[in-house]
Every structure is written in C-alpha cells, then in structure tokens.
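Lab channel / #folding
Pinned by the channel admin:
"Please post every new chain as: sequence first, then the structure tokens as a reply. Keep commentary short and put observations after the output so the thread stays searchable."

First post following the new format, from NK:
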Amino acid sequence: QVQLVESGGGLVQAGGSLRLSCAASARTFINYAMGWFRRTPGKEREFVGAISWRGDRTSYTDSVKGRFTISKDTAKSTVYLQMNSLKPEDTALYYCAADVDNPWKAPAASYEYDYWGQGTQVTVSS
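Reply from TO:
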C-alpha cells in the first residue's frame, strides 16, 4: 500500500505561482511513474501532467504546457508540480497518483494509476 499526501495548495492571484508537493510513503517510490490530475465541481477528473520513474519522460495536457513543470526528488520520495502564470481556469482540486505497472511511461489515463492522494485545493482569483 502506498500513501500519497499532497500539499502546497492555496489561494493565489492570476499570474502568480504555486508549487504543489506529493510525498509518498513507500521507499519503492523510485520505481513509480507519477501523475497529477485535477477536478473541478461538475467536471470529470482531468490529466495535468506526469513523469516517468527516471524522470526522463514527462507529459502535459496542452492547457498547461509551458506553464507547469513536474519534477521528482527520489531521495525525498516527493514529486512536485511547479505552476506558473496561473489562470482562474486552473482552479481545481489537484491530486497526485502513482503508476506501479508502467514506470517507464508518463501516462495520461487515470486508469493507469494505482494509488491516489486526497488532493490539495488550488484557487486562482482574477
């Protein structure tokens, strides 16, 4: 069982930045691909970005490319989502997830992921 705990959310003005963190409980974190997703009320969960276990492969949804960056610190068992130039439409509950079976990928499909955190709220004011 892997526990994921997100932090770093909050309220920020449009154009500002936030860095989300996702801490994993398992030492085998190094073997997982990690993803970030978000959900807003009334909408389905949306893929934001992902990183492979080595960090050599990343993927992003088009709406965040050039603004968001995913990285991971294996020594700290933590993955980060650096969010710059935030827009009101980025407002959502952000989740991190771990993919155990496809670590060499950076998958966008939520069904690929095995473990999920509880989420951290990001609110961007206009």
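NK: The radius of gyration is 13 Å.
TO: also worth noting, The chain has a mean pLDDT of 94.
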